[in-house]
Design brief:
Chain lengths: 200, 200
DNA sequence: GTTGACATATTACAGCTGACCGGTAAAAGC
DNA sequence: GCTTTTACCGGTCAGCTGTAATATGTCAAC
């Protein structure tokens, strides 16, 4: 038996190095060599774990989505039981906006990934599926909230879902310091306040 | 006197070539050589008009903003006189979303520019100023609409402006075909309908 | 202690990059 | 016809790229 290494853990370490490079120096600098240097290993070692650069990008993005989901789950766990849908949506949105270091890293990773998706069929399909899945999750919450009387039945679940996802459009405003984080949170809260009835 | 060429026009031609490369092949492929080839000139000629690649990027983005403003102005001109603020905002937002070829080109250019801005102080300052200026324009329209009774005085102009700008967050949904253009327009119209009082 | 399997490192390669520079062509004033 | 100015070309340079091939290191089982 050879020396054994936790393959998955190694890949995650490299993926995190990629995040840091993307966050600090931009996707253009995220070469195999620079990621290797950031991870403190040789670029040949990176090749051992990822056959191609694209494979690395895809894994790093999947991992970023996963970590974002975990952060959301953590946030939701601190809510009441059962959690109010308004608070669940707020937790999701605040973790998607670049308001804290972890969220900023994954947000920038995500932005670069979407841009890459526009010219790479494989990545396009993956990004699309991922986003569509997130959309479905939110729409389900919205529909349940309507059923439970938290949201007016006049509202169209699909349109409301799109408007909630659109709130990630605050990202460039935050990243370029056009608005402050509290302004973004105020906008999110304002939107949620109008979406939900003030009954329960 | 030497051979005379319309300098500005040449630069715009090259900038449009850059747009096409960015739209069709991505910012990563937007090298001086590839842009030159797209424009049908030598890479030396591009250097004659732009000392550095960065200078080319900056010019192309300024030009994109300018052209977007012109498209908005065209759209507003077709509205009543005076145009209803609701229709003005709708024209602005629909020209910022990638719903038509021109708008898609400038939208992708803009997305790449924002990503670049995060790691380049010069571009950051320019992108920030440009976005802040757009924000101010919209906020002015919102404030005037409140004064004129088109929007409830309960609304906070700044927050409403941020929520309007956030609607550009529909862009990834459209680009990745998660929603259809008409879904995006429905969301925009829904948001505007709730923002404006239904009086005039 | 040899073997086998895998981890890691080294090196090589062909290609593209941005920046730079010398040369040339053309046009207009003198 | 000569000079000056501008427009543009094509080559060169050092440096970086992704990927592949190869070599060395490591350790458990036999």
């Amino acid at each position: 038996m050879p020396k054994q290494v936790d393959h998955r853990e190694r890949r995650e370490t490299i993926a995190r190095a990629l995040w840091r490079v993307v966050e600090q120096r931009g996707i253009a600098h995220a070469s195999v060599r620079e990621v290797a240097q950031e991870a403190g290993i040789s670029h040949g070692a990176v090749q051992h774990y990822f056959a191609t650069r694209e494979e690395l990008l895809v894994f790093a993005m999947d991992f970023a989505s996963e970590q974002t989901s975990l952060r959301v789950a953590d946030g939701v766990r601190e809510l009441g039981n059962p959690p109010h849908p308004r608070d669940m949506l707020r937790a999701m949105l605040t973790e998607m906006l670049p308001l804290r270091p972890d969220a900023r890293a994954t947000s920038r990773m995500s932005a670069a990934y979407v841009l890459e998706a526009l010219h790479n069929a494989n990545i396009h399909a993956r990004a699309r599926d991922g986003l569509a899945h997130g959309r479905d999750l939110i729409e389900q919450i919205v529909r349940q909230a309507i059923t439970d009387g938290h949201i007016s039945p006049d509202r169209d679940p699909a349109t409301e879902t799109h408007l909630l996802l659109a709130l990630t459009g605050l990202t460039p405003l935050i990243e370029l310091s056009v608005i402050e984080p509290q302004d973004a949170l105020a906008a999110v809260d304002q939107h949620l306040n109008r979406l939900f009835t003030n009954k329960t």
